[in-house]
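2024-03-11 09:14:02 DEBUG pipeline.ingest accepted 1 chain
2024-03-11 09:14:02 DEBUG pipeline.ingest length=320
2024-03-11 09:14:03 DEBUG pipeline.predict start
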Amino acid sequence: MASRVEVGELRSRFLPDPVSYAVLTPDGQPPNAPLPLCLFLMGGGGSRQNLIDCQPLFDAWWADRSLPPMVVATPSAALSYYVDDFAAGIEWSAFLASDFPAHLRANCGGISLGDSSTALFGISMGGYGALKTAFAHAGRFAAVAAMQPMLEPGFRDAEIGARNRLHHLSGGPANLVGAGRDHTLFEANNPANRARANAHAIRESGLAIYLEAGDADFVNAHDGTEFLHRALWDLDISHEYRLTRAADHGGPTMVPRMREALKWVGEALTAGRTTMTPADQTSRLVLQEMRAQLEPLRAQALVLDPTTARRFGVLPTRIE
């Protein structure tokens, strides 16, 4: 399946400078079949050119039906970390949740209207940006997926050791990833803190969440990803988490991991829109019967242990 690329620039009330962007749209779609929208946030130093460079990958995945058709858009973000720094007039999260998708729907034909057809996907710095944006604006997105997100394992700056500050050497906003970090800014942008602050809204929204990292990540991004996984578990927020064995922060595993993450995004965006096969329907009925049989036991357990009503169990804080 071929695709077409459009480029543009958007001036927003939420950012001091115009943002250039690229949009990738698969060709050959029925004229009256609007497509879901995926905002693809690049890692440090990334730009719209990265999406243009990925066009052959998307064309191949659409051709072999690994991915359902969708519009993919990338803003140029340099080393911004998609930070929200209100004192400086910088609000990347609000830009990504409102002005950017609204502009795309108004100016790029064939995009579905409505938040239920919009997803965020990010890699490294982009994964950090995607998660913190989705957690602050859960009702604006159907799904968020983060590959090797550049997270740090703690709620407060004082909890972060040298092992998890290696990425600071690559640059970025000095008050976020510099030696003189503003701990208040770090904590306000921290996806784990945003999940805690907005846990009820995230649960109620049904936001689909995907976390993925490699266990050989040379900047130790897997530490922060594991920390966020545990935070979401404790908050009883449904999510999918994958720790990929022997995968690094780049290298030969990147393309297949990216394909799997985007495939998951596509499935989240099209959930409930595909026709179930007779075998699927039979399997669902069997499962419903099994759950009904177990329900009296769950009710008894709930009397003894209120956490039975949770999706995730309350686990020990430390494993010796």
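2024-03-11 09:14:41 DEBUG pipeline.report The CA atoms of residues 168 and 178 lie 6 Å apart.
2024-03-11 09:14:41 DEBUG pipeline.predict end
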